[in-house]
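Any chance you could type out a protein's amino acid sequence plus the matching backbone structure tokens because I've never seen that pairing?

——
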Amino acid sequence: MAEGRSNQQIADELVISERTARTHVSNVLRKLRLTSRTQAALFAVRQGLVPPSG
């Protein structure tokens, strides 16, 4: 998600259905109290989970 992947791309990478990927994304956003994938990406960079792209 922090790399800007779509639900389908996440699903393909994890070998799960697109619906399951969508559910996981929603759960992550809810648990982190974030409202968008953009906020999740910023959170991941700020926490050092992924390197900033540049």
Notes: The CA atoms of residues 13 and 50 lie 17 Å apart. The chain has a mean pLDDT of 93. Helices lie at 7-14, 18-31, 37-46.
